[in-house]
Structures are given as C-alpha cells and as structure tokens.
Predict the structure.
Amino acid sequence: MKRKILIVEDHDSLRYLMGAFLSRQFEVVGAKNGLDAMSWLGKGQLPDVIVTDMSMPALNGAELLDNLRCSGLYADIPVVVISGREDDEEEKRIKQLGARAYLRKPFSPTELQDRLLQLAG
C-alpha cells in the first residue's frame, strides 16, 4: 500500500509535475492553497506527509504549518516546505514552526522524493 502525500501548491503545473513524479512511490493528493488543504483534512483525510509551498493565496505555507501544529489531529503530520526565497531567517522560522524539511526552488525532485520516503516511514 502506497503512503499518501498532500501537495499544497498554487501553481497548477508545478503541482501536477510533482504529483506525476511522486505518484510512482506515493498516492498523491493536491490542493491549491492552505485553505483547500485544511478543507480536505477537515473531511477526515490524513496524509502521511504534507508538501507545501510558502507563497500562496488564501493561507500560505507558514500559516498552514501554524494551523497544523495547533491542531490535535494534524500536529504530528510531517511537513516539507518548499520556498522560492533565499532567506535563511525564513528557513529558521519555518523549522521552529515544526517543518521537518525546507527545500529551496529550484529543487531536485529526487531529493524531495528521498525526503518524503524517509518521513513517511
């Protein structure tokens, strides 16, 4: 049985490409932003890992991570954050919020896959 990952990315093409690449190893679900992700989770769905972009409308990656960590149901789901910013302070802040990994764009799909396999167990 494949592990389930939730990809939260507002750019349709990038979400599709990540999903297509990762679907060999995972069951992939996509959401356009953090609000859509929380709505999906609210329907009783639980992924093994969440991958989220930082910059998104309607609940960005940091806000999504904060919401997850404040929840009793979702607090333990590992989160990988992807950002297009070269900002060491942002990375530090995101890891303090509980992200298990922080990848900068452009990132290696293989590196992302390896991180997800490690986090999903």
Remarks:
- The helical segments are 12-22, 34-42, 61-69, 88-96, 109-120.
- The CA atoms of residues 12 and 32 lie 7 Å apart.
